[in-house]
Amino acid sequence: MITASPSARLSSPAPDWRQLWREAITDPAELLELLGLDALAPQLPRDDAGFALRVPRGFVARMRHGDPRDPLLLQVLPQLAELEDVEGFSTDAVGDLAARESQGLLHKYEGRALLIASGSCAVNCRYCFRRHFPYGEEMAAAGQWRQALAHLRADPSITELILSGGDPLALATSKLEELTRGLAELPHVIRLRIHTRLPVVLPDRIDETFLGWLSALPLQKVVVLHANHANEFDAAVDAACAGLRAAGATLLNQAVLLRGINDREDALIELSERLFAAGVLPYYLHQLDRVQGAAHFEVDDDRALALVEAMRARLPGYLVPRLVREVAGDTSKRPL
Ligand SMILES: *Cc1c(COP(=O)(O)O)cnc(C)c1O
Ligand code: SF4
User: Does domain 97-335 have CATH number 1.10.730.10?
Assistant: First the structure.
């Protein structure tokens, strides 16, 4: 299967990213079997604890076989702990997200407007607010582009448009093109930022069509990736990052601090080093949103601060992410 001969390539072209998307694993028993962890099956919560398992096969290939504590597996495998009710963790930690959906465009921070361009993700991360917020598949109906563009047109203070979600790169490139054609008429918008986990979890998404679109954009371009652990990188992710950089994008990463996954000095340092090797700078390290079902991932603030101090002592300043929390009503992310 991994032959590199040109004829083999010709007869079996690389699968389209949409096909890989559809072929993602959604059955926990299949996932455990692939990893040689069948013995864990009886410990799984029923009905995926109300938030479907979903993980692309390429991401599973980066998990360690036979390791129930694998840091990539723990990000996607439903756990019994998700069923515990923990005080302070609620489904309406996402209260303002309901507002986001209807509005589509969120303008909370000076100069930047954030568009929920898509509700879909290739992967379901267990710690994510999305577990309580089943977005519609398509948030970006043509009408909504028009509405968002009208808002941008009317407010010259907005110089940066952020595409977020869900994952905005769940949209077809032709759909993204529609949006950016509209941006061309707004000279005050000089920067496009894309928040996406796809280059990491499904790097095939960064295909030639996409890179052609990105390169041709007459805008400053920033892509903010989301990786939480160095093991999420492999040659395919490196290639996606290289493509994005060659298309003129500045690459940043946001991670979430997650107990049992990356809450060790060495893991965080390794992540920063690995990001830089791929041409990505660490941007934010987020304290967890307190969503119901994710309490077992929380790291307390004192420990979080100590971890970042430890990073600062051992890394160049540009490899130390800013430790922040999102607080509803604030005019920026809140530094800890
Ligand atoms: C996080 C966020 C941004 C971007 O914030 P930066 O600090 O510039 O990365 C913009 N708008 C909203 C609504 C956000 O939640
Ligand atoms: S990719 Fe991002 S938005 Fe999607 S489930 Fe994971 S953390 Fe949530």
Answer: no
Which residue among 114, 161, 195, 251 is best mutated to probe the pocket of ligand 1, counting the most ligand atoms within 8 A of its Cβ? 114
* DSSP 8-state assignment for residue 139: -
- Ligand 2 pocket test, candidate residues 125, 131, 196, most atoms within 8 A of CB: 125
What pTM value is reported for the model? Answer: 0.94
The DSSP secondary-structure symbol of 118 reads E
pLDDT tens digits for range 306-335: 999 999 999 999 999 999 999 888 889 999
143-148's contacts with Cβ under 8 Å and 24+ in sequence apart are: 144/104, 145/178, 145/179, 145/182, 146/182, 147/104, 147/105, 148/104, 148/105, 148/113, 148/115, 148/179
| 44 C-alpha to ligand 1 centroid (Å) | 35
